[in-house]
Amino acid sequence: MTGVVPLRAADARCGTKARTLGRLLRAGLAVPDGVVIPRALGTGWRHDLPLHLGALGAPTFAVRSSSSAEDGARASYAGQLRTVLHVPRAEVEDAVREVASATAADYEAALDLPAGGGVAVLVQPMLAPVAAGVAVTRHPVTGVVTTVVEAVPGLGEPLVSGRADPERWQVDRGGRARVDRVRDVLSPPRAEAVARLAESVERLLGGPQDVEWALDAGGTVWTLQARPVTTGPAAGPGPGARHAGTARGALLGTGTPAGPGTACGRVRVLRGLDDLPAFLPGEVLVCRATSPAWTPALARAAAVVTEVGGMLSHAAIVARELGLPAVTGLARARDLPDGALVRVDGSAGTVRTVMTS
After folding, report:
1. What is the pLDDT of residue 244?
2. What DSSP line would sit under 164-184, residue for residue?
């Protein structure tokens, strides 16, 4: 039996991401074709892979994880495993091994998940989109039945990694689009086309969906990933709530509501990974943006505030899964006074001082 599986034939051994994309491909949605290597740490696929890559006919590829643990209803593993983009054909084999070796131990510990098993690897031709992003078929903060679309020019990686401030649209079930944050990325018809795609995925798969998409120059909206919208426990007052005062404090800043609930704690500004050991349980994590390496701090935080990013970035998704109030895209967040006692309202997108009684 070959060690390489066409995406259209992906089954349970190919991991959740590939199996879902294979189902959508068979249903007629625009999904970049590809192949899956279920046992990527073995060697049985090396002989067959070059032939499959040649048939796909692309000069460069995206090499992506497809674990059976990720993309679940409770745990998305958003951004926790490995993706390598723009991989030349001659380097795909090395990239496959790199992706297959990735683990998500910190994330699994934070959410009290069992250790994940082997990681299958999905290989697809690289696209050259004019815009890309994420669409969810329920508002991730309020739960309202509407499709939220976030978009950036070109590839979506800066959006999902939280390194870019995206354009944001809301599209109601009547198909009417309203822009919340303008970045001149999508026109209303194109935002509506993205929303229609996400809603089609929801009808096919059932339940609210989180869809990564890309728009090409010809107007085709491609599906790159689809998974259930994950929600964590309702955000409580947070470990620092014992400091909460009764008076309304001064407004320090307003960003994007990204994780519902409120929490109080002392600001801890982290400017890099070297600052992580100084972070104490119950503090408010403030940084430019987060990555999987920040997960241990997120697990100890009362709330998280980032300078850039949207409500559909990987960091925002993980914060919601952890039940953390989160505010993203708060300009000059790292200028918040270190050690100050603040209240973070992730439903309103605000950070205020706490007036102690």
Report:
1. 45
2. S--EEEEE-TT--EEEEE--S
Strand partners, 211: 135, 226
Distance CA 36, CA 21 (A): 11
At 310, which CATH number? 3.50.30.10
Least confident window among 170-174, 270-274, 349-353: 270-274
Crossing angle of helices 49-56 and 92-100, in 10° steps, is 110
> What letter does residue 186 receive in the DSSP assignment?
-
Phi and psi at 188, nearest 5°, equal -55, -45
**What is the rounded CA–CA span in Å between residue 21 and residue 9?**
10
**pLDDT band (50, 70, 90) for residue 357:** low
- Model confidence pTM above 0.85: yes
Q: Could you report the per-residue pLDDT of 303-319, keeping only the tens digit for each?
A: 999 999 999 998 899 99
Same domain, yes or no: 271 and 346: yes
Residue 165: band (very low, low, confident or very high) from pLDDT cuts 50, 70, 90: very high
Q: Are 102 and 12 in a shared domain?
A: yes
Q: Is the separation of the CB atoms in 58 and 35 below 8 Å?
A: no
284 and 185 share a domain? no
Q: Cα dist. 355→251, 261, 265, 345 in Å?
A: 12, 19, 12, 15
